[in-house]
UniProtKB/TrEMBL annotation:
Signal peptide, first to last residue: none
Coiled coil: none
Domain Mos1 transposase HTH: residue ranges: 46-85
Feature: compositional bias, Polar residues: 198-210
Database matches in InterPro entries: Mos1_HTH (IPR041426), RNaseH_sf (IPR036397), Transposase-MT_Hybrid (IPR052709), Transposase_1 (IPR001888)
Region (Disordered): 83-103, 198-218
Name listed for the protein in its UniProt record: Mos1 transposase HTH domain-containing protein
Pfam families for this protein: HTH_48, Transposase_1
Length: 375
């Protein structure tokens, strides 16, 4: 059939044509497309685009292509306007600048995994902003592909392995025995630390003082601060450290913080130094580095073991940070240091440490499983 006749041939007739080996006839590609349509009336979008592209090359008008598709594909046929738009070179979706990536690929899974390993408190929204991956896709990868769920605002495995449960149960039993040997002494010796994201806001006066009213506070983020380390005991906060933007906690950095902590204890709780301090922290690599371990030893602290994937057994995670974020919502401060001093009473800190007893007992009763319900 001549190419000039092809332009007048209904689309429905294409699958039944006999293709001839001559330059003026439809090529073998056309035959393959025709066979595809014959096999199934349900076509994928890319297949429809390929057919439209081919027929446009044969100089068929959008109207002819549309009418032929309506005869062949019926309700699955694209609209006339779609046929006109699909007559383009590429058969793939065009990339839209700024549009989040929706696909679940191994590359995206690996990128998200790396971010979560660096910061288990990283939110889905922050991952979306950092990697440009759609929020729903991030959440799906976290839960379905990485098997993670949130516990005390941290990402942890949704299902613990038998070995992980055994470690949690064993350490809960050991730490509980240490507490029950002398509860009052344990509480008086206990110091814990953890990191969280920025929790403060500064006051910025509104320069429109109408009606003689005092200027209103405007909420703005803490300038350039992305993480705060809190060291505290049963009486309150011992040391706050705000990490500047672009910095990360390294072994050397943390070792210097431990020296500052000892000086803070010497200034605020001098009597604690006469007893061996029971020091608690999580298992972040920088906190377990050789430099950090040496600094803990040099400070005369007794390190209390902490089980992996156990924010439900860390007072900062289950007690301090959730309360801070809830109670400080909408409140404005002139400086970072005002935050904790203005919001918490001394009894609050003691309650958090005492709560460890029941949580450890529950962990033992649950044979090492999570104390809190997982999301």
């Amino acid at each position: 059939m001549a190419a000039s006749d092809m332009r007048k041939t209904p689309f429905a007739a294409v699958p039944n044509m006999e293709y001839k080996r001559c330059s003026s006839c439809i090529s073998g590609l056309g035959a393959l497309i025709g066979d595809k349509i014959q096999e199934s009336s349900k076509m994928e979008t890319n297949e429809i685009r390929a057919v439209i592209k081919y027929l446009c090359k044969k100089e068929m008008s959008p109207k002819e292509i549309y009418e032929g598709m309506m005869d062949t594909l019926r309700e699955d046929a694209p609209s006339y306007s779609t046929v006109k738009k699909m007559g383009r070179i590429s058969t793939e979706d065009k990339h839209r600048p700024g549009r989040p990536v929706e696909s679940v690929t191994q590359e995206n899974i690996d990128k998200i995994h790396v971010l979560v390993m660096l910061d288990r408190r990283m939110t889905v929204r922050r991952i979306e902003e950092t990697l440009g991956i759609l929020k729903t896709t991030v959440d799906r990868i976290m839960r379905e592909h990485l098997g993670l769920g949130q516990l005390s605002a941290r990402w942890v495995p949704k299902l613990l392995t038998p070995d992980q449960k055994a470690v949690r149960r064993k350490l809960s039993s050991d730490n509980l025995a240490l507490f029950e040997a002398n509860p009052e002494e344990f509480v008086n010796r206990f110091v814990t630390m953890d990191e969280t994201g920025p929790i403060t806001s500064h006051q910025s006066p509104n320069n429109n003082p109408c009606n003689g009213e005092p200027p209103k506070a405007k909420t703005v983020p803490s300038a350039g601060k992305v993480m705060v380390s809190v060291f505290w005991d049963s009486e309150g906060v011992l040391l706050l450290d705000f990490l500047n933007k672009g910095q990360t906690i390294t072994g050397n950095y943390y070792a210097k913080l431990l020296k500052q902590l000892r000086e803070a204890i010497k200034e605020k709780r001098r009597e604690m130094l006469s007893r061996k301090i029971v020091y608690h922290q999580d298992n972040a690599p920088s906190l377990r580095s050789l430099q950090a371990m040496a600094a803990i030893y040099d400070s005369g602290f007794e390190l209390l073991p902490h089980a992996p994937y156990s924010p439900d057994l860390a007072p900062s995670d289950f007690h301090l940070f959730p309360h801070l974020k809830k109670s400080l919502s909408g409140i404005h401060f002139r400086s970072d240091e005002e935050v904790i001093d203005a919001s918490l009473e001394t009894s609050f800190f003691l309650e958090g440490i005492n709560a460890l007893e029941n949580r450890r007992k529950k962990c033992i009763d649950l044979k090492g499983d999570y104390v809190e319900k997982k999301l």
